[in-house]
Amino acid sequence: MNTKHLKKGDELPSSSSGRVRFYNMRYCPFAKRTRMVLWHKKIPHDVININLKDKPDWFFDKNPFGTVPAIERDNDIIFESAVCNNFLEEEYEGASLIPSCKKQRYHERMLMDAFGSVIPKIHTIVTGQNIDEAIENFMKSFQHFEKEIANRKFFGGDEISMLDIHIWPFIQKISVFEEIKEMEILKKLPNTSKWISNMLTVDCVQKTHTVGLNKYLHDVILGEKVDYDYKIEDDPILEA
Amino acid sequence: MNTKHLKKGDELPSSSSGRVRFYNMRYCPFAKRTRMVLWHKKIPHDVININLKDKPDWFFDKNPFGTVPAIERDNDIIFESAVCNNFLEEEYEGASLIPSCKKQRYHERMLMDAFGSVIPKIHTIVTGQNIDEAIENFMKSFQHFEKEIANRKFFGGDEISMLDIHIWPFIQKISVFEEIKEMEILKKLPNTSKWISNMLTVDCVQKTHTVGLNKYLHDVILGEKVDYDYKIEDDPILEA
């Protein structure tokens, strides 16, 4: 199941017992983190897309904060991307995304949390008054990640890990900004650019690519009307 | 040890092997979360206060992001408040702050992460152009926490938990704003107000109260010169 973006007044589709239900917005970078984990671990799931501008009332019974991603399984509800991903990692088998070495595990967690202060700086590149200043602030806050990924395929080493997944949807957005606004950001980040190429070869990155992402960001940036369901029939579905 | 706020050019004090070193800024709400855990679990530690406006170069060797809190033990460095607190919880005995019930544990983690979107709204109460609008936005984002704490002593139940500690330093700031700016915020949050009274009876809350917090916030809000070391000799020290 992969619903259109449900809004106020739309009914909640009935659920299949035991099957994971994933509340999503197709262009939301936080939701995408969890979508990547679902695909990486090959967890069959139904996708309920939510119109975040006009949320159905029943969605607040699921998640009082009204945010995506949220994961539902029978009567368990989990929200907040890092917690959803931790839940999926703990509850499901399949390729692990968390380092077995304790030191490395703490290292990744610290960088995941530290990336939280990079996110608003990415946002400001598009919304801010002074683009050059915004890019400079982003570069400064991201410099440690650029250093960290030198001479490595992924942040986790030879295989992707939770940290790669945590960062990817936001860095991917930057490459779209570049196209739309003719900015040069990633060219100044050679290690990150190589990492992006490596990420694009990974199955869960390919499977979760939303066809209309460029169009969506373009429409948002230019203040045009957004079609959330654009080419939704092309979304890959992981049935079983 | 409880140093004055060290700045560029100041030397790093030599450390005692095996003893926890805590990098702090006395009025930083993120650092305070970790300070509360250190006191709650009665972990002896040295406090190295950092001048965040003029950081010593060696601090970036400890934490490349230059943020507090950071915890150092022998050659291990942990930064980011949630990760520091998790490290202390996992590595040290003493009263646990994480629920043993898995469902409750996930519930707390979700609320801890969700609180992340409340923090900028608290900040805007002081820095924003429209105070009434800022208070309304805070109220909206905090309403679930106000509901959640009805008829309970602490978020964790009868005893404080990591979620209480995660939230406390920010809600405490609001009570100071009220005094300084004559705003009425907490009066409209009766459950939270009761929770604040309960929190004030807890040992780790009392021991980590920084004498000059009101003066500090007052000076910041009015744009006056800040004395970070104000009455630093009154800070309680947990030696052994």
TrEMBL record, chains A, B:
Stretches assigned to the GST N-terminal domain: 18-96
GO CC annotation: cytoplasm
GO molecular function, one term: glutathione transferase activity
SUPFAM superfamilies: GST C-terminal domain-like (SSF47616), Thioredoxin-like (SSF52833)
Similarity comment text for this entry: Belongs to the GST superfamily. Omega family.
Oxidoreductase among keywords: yes
Purpose of the protein: Exhibits glutathione-dependent thiol transferase activity. Has high dehydroascorbate reductase activity and may contribute to the recycling of ascorbic acid. Participates in the biotransformation of inorganic arsenic and reduces monomethylarsonic acid (MMA).
Protein name (database record): Glutathione S-transferase omega
UniProt EC number: 1.20.4.2, 1.8.5.1, 2.5.1.18
Catalytic activity: RX + glutathione = an S-substituted glutathione + a halide anion + H(+); methylarsonate + 2 glutathione + H(+) = methylarsonous acid + glutathione disulfide + H2O; L-dehydroascorbate + 2 glutathione = glutathione disulfide + L-ascorbate
Alphabetized InterPro entries for the sequence: Glutathione-S-Trfase_C-like, Glutathione-S-Trfase_C_sf, Glutathione_S-Trfase, Glutathione_S-Trfase_N, GST_C, GST_omega, GST_Omega/HSP26, Thioredoxin-like_sf
Superkingdom to which the source organism belongs: Eukaryota
Transmembrane segments: none
One GO term of the biological process aspect: glutathione metabolic process
Organism field: Dimorphilus gyrociliatus
Keywords: Oxidoreductase, Transferase
